[in-house]
Amino acid sequence: MNVKDTGRINVTRSSMPELKEFIEELKPVWNSRWLSNRGAASKKFESMLESYLEVEHVYCFANGHVALEIAINSLFLKGEVITTPYTHVSTTHAIVRNGLTPVFVDVEEENYTINSELIEKAITDKTVAIVATHVYGFPCNVENIERIAQKYNLYVIYDAAHAFGVKYKGVGIGNFGDLAMFSTHATKVFHTIEGGIVTYKDKDNERLSPMRKIVNFGFTNEECIDFIGTNARMNEFEAVMGIVNLEHIDTEIAKRKIAVERYKERLDGIKGIRILKPAKNVEWNGAYFPVIFDGYRWDRNQVQAELAKHNIYARKYFYPLVNRAACYIDLYGKVEVPVAAHAADCILTLPMYADLTVDDVDRICDIILK
Ligand SMILES: *Cc1c(COP(=O)(O)O)cnc(C)c1O
After folding, report:
1. For a pocket test of ligand 1, which of 136, 183, 187, 316 has the largest count of ligand atoms closer than 8 A to its C-beta?
2. Could you tell me the pTM of the whole model?
3. Which CATH architecture has domain 19-246?
4. Residue from 140, 137, 143, 128 nearest 82 by CA
5. Of ligand 1's atoms, which has the minimum distance to the CA of residue 162?
């Protein structure tokens, strides 16, 4: 087969609105000279997000990582947190930087989210929370996790960085858990250049309100500094980018789905290749296109190298496992996670973004299958 070789294809590519749309939306911010500290654009953006995500409350942050770190911080916990090492290192960093101890359990074979049956076995009298990632936008087993959390009185915080716009049984994914964090970084399905948001219920809930102060140095009002805060504010330009991008998000997700379908047509059922798919009751966002190479004539690294020769850059999300990262190795005892370890060795996330064309997908698949 002849492989057409044209421009560079990265694993992801930011969705962009028309520049004139951005400028139009920016004008009032520009004229007001209110550039940060939760001005009109941030407030408008938050309320648009509340309706789009169908959640009670949204709060914006400078990026997804600090959003997660502050969300956890706002609960003032001490002890152990059950999580998995099959995630962005950000998830674990957010736990550890809050002085908490991560307890790593394995993931489900099917979609690499936390294995809820193993959570219960890992609970000790020190366990205070579960921090779980909706990996690739595939929801965790939210029902089992909810049941366990209620039984043992644990907080549940979701790293929903990949899951913007995802629904489980028709319910916006931000409604599950006590708090959920969505990253709105430039590389994600929906972005604000840099940014992150936390969704939560009950704005006046005392447990959660510190989050909205910690983000701004802990100020409760001009003269009261009640928390040891930090600065993690989203700025108004980012909120404007969010407002404009949100107008197009459904179209962008629909475009991703065309690429997803083409990948499936080309790769599904090929011996040694396994495609990860959302469950039937999930409205997915096509955040990534993860593929397992196990028993294929090339291993994962060979596929990645072969694509790179043709200027196509697939990525190993997630490799290494977080517990194998240099900063964590041997820190938390022996971690037995065979499913996650196998995934980390065999996974390749193929390029996936709204502007990826069917021809691009064909070019990628031609190389893999040639
Ligand atoms: C991207 C990502 C983060 C961090 O988000 P930033 O906005 O880049 O800080 C955290 N968790 C997961 C799973 C991610 O993919």
Report:
1. 183
2. 0.96
3. 3-Layer(aba) Sandwich (3.40)
4. 128
5. 15
